[in-house]
Design goal:
The protein is an alpha+beta fold and 135 residues long. It has 3 helices and 5 strands.
Length: 135
Amino acid sequence: MLQTQLKVDYFNKETFKNKPVKNDEVQKDQFSKLLVTQLKNQNPMDPMKDREFIAQMAQLTSLEKMEKVREGMDQLIVNNSNNSLYGLLGRKVTFINEKGQEEVGAVDAVEFKENKGMIQVNKTMIDPRQIQRVE
């Protein structure tokens, strides 16, 4: 068992060295590679039991599905946040401008670029996080 663990540790260290990847990709890749390494290095006199293998495959499937749910939730949050900007149209807002000064004006337009919402006040596009007050 110790020999297998050492091989797995070495395998993981070499595999993920200097590779910039997303956290969720790392988890799935690590799990898959660990499972394959475990199967390759198992003791032929004591092979992995079917139940253990099935449990590990179920964990991998669960991990993939949880990642998809998280991605869907992230997109839902972005959409909800962006949709709330439409409620600002025509409303008077107080915001901090680029010079750090307070400015007041009505929201004239809402614009979306790359899933990021911006609003137009006094012919200037501003980030909604600059808003201090809505009337």
